[in-house]
């Protein structure tokens, strides 16, 4: 991944890489198809809640651990003959970044050990990018103080680098961040303090500087909207600080931003942006539409003896029991009763459905739904219908971030650099002088 990042920098391409949250197997499949069709570098960014080793609680996406996830991607790209660039990344790795660890308030030493075990397992599984996020601590509900957050980053970075050195592992790209997703954001001075301290401590110990630094650009996701306000002036200031230390500014929570805003990202120099919930929502939206087609057909035709999918009621039951939907409520003090509002039921399902697609009840409901759609020729290829809706969402970012044909441009540049290097080496050997 480092080579790709460096090539983009040297090419002076105004692009913003897209980090895709693997919300489900269908989202992974749709992402690979989109990368093939648009020829852009594919980067998956998996949180510990999504993908995690079983000993640390597992994840909700297909019950995959890091090896399962990595192996599935490798087998899928081989199956479809995709020869583009694919990166596998850990998003929000670190202490208390698994929901159960935070809510259970596990001890500090245990949380750090779990984080280290998670990172090293990712490396063994072939991950390229590790996001070290020390912004969570149940003892600091507002925000972890800067010096403590940096100290924990350095401790984890040292443990990871030691593990790699003992196994002669390749270069790893690191990402760091200071603050949790929140409605207000830190003063620029605190971001600068974090970066300066982070770089100083890493340099002092001769450890690699993180390639990416996450800055709060004003984005904030609640339900199916970006409630934040993308702040260009803030981005310019964050970028200036990042550049001063040779780091790449990265944005989280780019979901649901409008197309005009997305087009500003490459121009402003945001090197990468993560999108996840929006793609999960697009999958569920498509499934809801298919369910409505099934319901309409059954209401108009006599199909006694045929089992209905009951998809909507099944997924809603799981959502309501889990309480996961509360994470996305705009105002937790006043909006907790919205789960019982019939007008909001479909929105809540579309935003939260992806958490449950690995459950037996939803696997069965989805299978029955697709069987009925095909059997009665309501929709000949429901799987394609769902994937295409996800791909339309991904396309917004491909277009806005100038990603079309980027993989080919990078390959051409790297081939050119390689030939120039060989040519220059030959000239030095023959004349003692550089060709350049």
TrEMBL record:
InterPro entries: Aldolase_TIM, GatZ/KbaZ-like. Pfam families: GatZ_KbaZ-like. One of its GO terms (biological process) is carbohydrate metabolic process. Coiled coil: none annotated. This is D-tagatose-1,6-bisphosphate aldolase subunit GatZ. It comes from Ruminiclostridium hungatei. The gene is gatZ.
């Amino acid at each position: 991944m480092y080579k790709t990042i460096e090539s983009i920098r040297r090419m002076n391409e105004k692009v913003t890489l897209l980090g895709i949250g693997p919300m489900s197997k269908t989202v992974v499949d749709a992402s690979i198809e989109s990368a093939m069709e648009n020829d852009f570098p594919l980067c998956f960014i998996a949180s510990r809640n999504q993908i995690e080793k079983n000993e640390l609680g597992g994840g909700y996406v297909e019950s995959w651990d890091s090896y399962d996830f990595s192996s599935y991607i490798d087998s899928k790209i081989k199956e479809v003959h995709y020869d583009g660039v694919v990166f596998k990344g850990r998003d929000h790795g670190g202490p208390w970044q698994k929901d159960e660890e935070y809510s259970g308030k596990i001890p500090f030493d245990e949380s750090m050990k779990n984080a280290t075990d998670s990172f090293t397992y990712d490396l063994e599984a072939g991950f390229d990018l590790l996001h070290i996020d020390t912004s969570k601590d149940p003892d600091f509900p507002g925000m972890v103080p800067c010096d403590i957050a940096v100290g924990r980053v350095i401790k984890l970075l040292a443990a990871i680098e030691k593990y790699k050195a003992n196994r002669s592992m390749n270069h790893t790209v690191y990402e760091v961040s200071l603050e949790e997703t929140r409605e207000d954001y830190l003063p620029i001075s605190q971001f600068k303090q974090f970066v300066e301290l982070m770089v100083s401590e890493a340099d002092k110990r001769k450890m690699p500087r993180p390639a990416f630094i996450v800055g709060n650009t004003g984005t904030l996701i609640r339900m199916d909207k970006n409630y934040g306000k993308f702040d260009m002036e803030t981005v310019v200031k964050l970028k200036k600080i990042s550049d001063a230390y040779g780091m790449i500014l990265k944005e989280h929570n780019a979901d649901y931003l409008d197309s005009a805003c997305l087009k500003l990202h490459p121009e402003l120099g945001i090197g990468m942006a993560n999108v996840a919930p929006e793609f999960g929502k697009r999958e569920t939206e498509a499934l809801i539409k298919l369910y409505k087609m099934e319901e309409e057909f059954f209401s108009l035709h006599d199909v006694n003896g045929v089992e209905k999918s009951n998809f909507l009621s099944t997924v809603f039951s799981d959502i309501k029991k889990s309480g996961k939907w509360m994470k996305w409520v705009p105002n937790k003090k006043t909006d907790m009763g919205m789960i019982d509002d019939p007008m909001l039921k479909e929105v809540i399902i579309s935003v939260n459905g992806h958490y449950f697609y690995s459950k037996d009840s939803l696997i069965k409901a989805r299978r029955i739904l697709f069987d009925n759609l095909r059997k009665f020729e309501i929709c000949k290829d429901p799987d394609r219908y769902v994937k295409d809706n996800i791909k339309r969402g991904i396309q917004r970012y491909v277009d806005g971030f100038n990603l079309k044909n980027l993989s080919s441009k990078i390959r051409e540049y790297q081939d050119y650099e390689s030939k120039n290097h060989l040519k220059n080496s030959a000239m030095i050997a023959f004349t003692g002088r550089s060709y350049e």
